[in-house]
Amino acid sequence: MLPARHALSRRGTIRAETAVYSPAMIRPGADPDDVRMADVLCDFCRGPWTLDRPMVEGHRGAVICGHCLTVAYTTLVLERAASPVDFDCLLCREGPRDRAALERAGEPGWTSPAHAEASVCRRCVKRAAGALHKDPDAAWCKPVSPGGRGDGPMQPTAASADEDGESDG
Ligand SMILES: [Zn+2]
Ligand SMILES: [Zn+2]
Fold first, then answer.
1. How close is the Cα of 71 to the center of ligand 1, in Å?
2. Which residue of 44, 105, 135, 151 has the lowest C-beta tally within 10 Å?
3. 116-125 pLDDT, tens per residue?
4. Tell me: the pLDDT tens digits for 64-105?
């Protein structure tokens, strides 16, 4: 049984026959009618979906894992580090023009250090973090500011770089 996935689009649990997975997400050779957790890969680090690597789904089956979300949230929300503004968000599919039309021009995003084509906008990072934070099964908490603003007793679960080292060049 697959655990419920967190869908920004409120679709709830994804059924294999209705899910639209982008090719990058599924390992080559995986049976699309029997998608297993290990077949679902984070679009940002290509890490497999595991119990300690929860996934949040955006539109069109793009997913970001809890590890990447921690880094993205820390970078964009806590550190407000210099970030790209000219990118297409993988999760909501909005580009610079879409954001400008929605009066979000100049909104920064986070780009995966491992996969430069994978970026996510700040809005999606916040929404995904909110969805995952609320889920008791996910065991994922929003990162808190190192300065300690004291808005939560929980520590971030995986602020460290726990990379698989997998790279397909
Ligand atoms: Zn990831
Ligand atoms: Zn987005």
1. 9
2. 151
3. 999 999 999 9
4. 999 999 999 999 999 998 888 999 999 999 999 999 999 999
The DSSP result for 139-159, as a single string, is -------TT---S-SPPPS--
What domain range is 28 assigned to? Answer: 6-134
116 part of a folded domain: yes
Tokens in use for 12? Answer: 């709830």
| Ligand approaching nearest to the C-alpha of 122 | 2
- Is 114 among the domain residues? yes
* Ligand 1 ion: nearby residues, β-carbon < 5 Å: 42, 44-45, 47, 65, 68
pTM (two decimals): 0.69
Name the residue type at position 71. Answer: V
Answer yes or no: is 155 within a domain: no
- CA 48/CA 77 separation, integer angstroms: 25
Answer yes or no: is 48 within a domain.
yes
Nearest ligand atom owner, CA of 94: 2
Each residue's pLDDT tens digit, 14-23 = 333 333 333 3
For residues 130 and 134, what is the distance between their CA atoms, to the nearest angstrom? 6
